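Need tokens for this chain, all 77 residues.
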Amino acid sequence: MPGADLKLDCVGLFCPMPVLKTREAMRRLEPGQILEMTSDDPASEADVRSWTTRTGNELMEIDRNGATFRFLIRKAR
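Here are the structure tokens for all 77 residues:
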């Protein structure tokens, strides 16, 4: 399992903040690098899925631990 190049904690933030902060963080990464984002927003799973589809970034993994989601996203370009 590859490690994240950047970790982003969005716990306590609600839609649309996790996706907006994810977008900002992805701008700091090079193509191929990985962002790990954690969020406890119930909407974040659907939001991140739709955002990665729209932007072409790769949603590598979603883990859920209780109310907290952990997303691994690889920057496409």
